[in-house]
Predict the structure.
Amino acid sequence: MTTSSNSDNLRGAALMAGSMACFTMNDTAMKALSDELPMFQAVFLRGIATSVWMYLLARALGGLRFNFSRRDWTLIAIRNVTEIGAAYFFVSAFFNMPIANATAILQAMPLSVTLAGALFLGETVGWRRISAILVGFAGVMLIVRPGGEGFNFYSIYALIAVALVTVRDLLSRQLSSDVPSMTVAFFNAVAVMIFFGIGSIFIEWQPVSGLAAMQMGMASVLLIGGYVFSVSAMRVGEVAVIAPFRYTSLLWALLLGFVVFADWPDRLTLLGAAIVVATGVYTFYRERNLSRSTPKALRIR
């Protein structure tokens, strides 16, 4: 592995970790107002603010362009559909279950993205990394405990979101370098806003308090960071290296769940979280040291 590859992997990992921090804090702000506003209204109003901020930021940074190939436009359109689906299913999940549980289920994504990268992008995945991510998935199962109290109907929604985000991230890697990440993120924000705006027509709107407005404003800013960092992360480095850093969202969910919602995890949840984080850190550490060794690689076919 070259120095350039190491640098790309380091940058991609940092971007993914930043994306997870933003997304989880956004989820916390939205869940905090779930008792006051219905989901479609809350996400639509947040989407208006997010889209406006995203547009202004993209224009200021020169990251808003529309002269793409037909292939890129098609990929962006499909990616928007997967983003809408993922937003609907995951927001539904964490509106109706503890945020740590919903986030824990979402940690299946490193496994699904890694396997999908090997299957569809031809990326080589070392057996040590495969083992580490499988161990991490076992840690997720300790947190979720299928059949237990934390695993309910909305857990299935979270799993559907995992599948949709996996497709979304693979599509991000197929976009040409002519497409700015800010443009992709802007289209995502607008697509989600439109979908939830249409859905909000069929519900009874509730008055928005000053606190709810502040929470939605904060969520919209955090969502911008999550979008931009996520798109950028999946376009540099290897999927197998970057994907495990989604695990950092679990740390944020556990911390914020306790601080904001007084939801302290039990011992098995803490054990599972420790396993998940450890495997993510190991996977990155292993990749960083591959330049000094040449272990046998395994390519999933």
